Amino acid sequence: MVDAHPSHEPVAPALVEVSGLSLPAAITHLPRPDPYLNVEDYEPEADAMALNMGPQHPSTHGVLRLKLFLDGEICFKAVPYVGYLHRGVEKLLENRTAIQSVPYVDKNDYVSPLTGELALVMAYEALLDVEPPPRAQVLRTILMELQRIASHHLWLGTFCLDMGGALGGGSSVFLYNFRERELILDLLEALTGQRMHYNALMVGGNRHDVPPGWEEKVLATMDRVEDRLAEYEAMTVDNHIFRSRTVGVGVLDPLLALEAGAGGANLRASGVDHDLRRDAPYAAYGQVDVRIPVETAGDCYARFLVRIAEMREAIRIVRLLVSGIPEGPIGALKPPRHVNAVKLPPGEVYVGIESPRGELGTYLISDGSPIPVRVKIRPPSLHAVSLLPYLCVGATVSDIVVILGSLDPILGEVDR
Amino acid sequence: MMRAWIDTLFAFSTTLRNVGRRRVTEPLPWKRLRAHPERYRAGFALTDDEHGEVACIACKACENVCPSGIIRVEGERRESPVTGKKRAYPVSFVLDMNACIFCELCVQVCPSDAIRMRTAWTIPGTSREDQVLTLERLRANAREGHLSWATPGRLRAMQDPERKNGEGGEP
Amino acid sequence: MSRVLDALRMIWEIGWLRGLVVGFVTLTVVMLIAAFTIWFERKWSGRMQNRPGPTERGYGGWLQIFADFFKLLQKENLTPTATDRRLFDFVPPIVVFVVLSSLAVVPYVPQGPAADASVGVLLALAISSLMVFPVWAAGWSSNNKWALLGAMRAVAQSISYEIPLVLSALVPVILAGSFRLTEIVGAQADWHWFAFWPPGPGLAAFVLFYLSSLAEANRIPFDIPEAESELVAGATTEYGGMKFGMFYLGEYVHTFVASSLAALLFFGGWEGPGPDGLHWMLAKALILTASVIHVRWTLVRYRSDQLLRLCWTYFVPAALVLVFAAGLWRILAGGLA
Amino acid sequence: MPDDVLALFRTRLGLEEVPPEGPFVPPETLPDIVAALKEMGFLLFLYCAATHWPATENRPEAFTVAYGLRRPGPGSSTARLRVRIPADGSIPTLSGLFAGADWQEREQYDLVGIHFEGHPDLRRLMLPEDWEGHPLRKDYAIDTHHFPWR
Question: Complex ipTM, two decimals?
Answer without folding.
Answer: 0.84
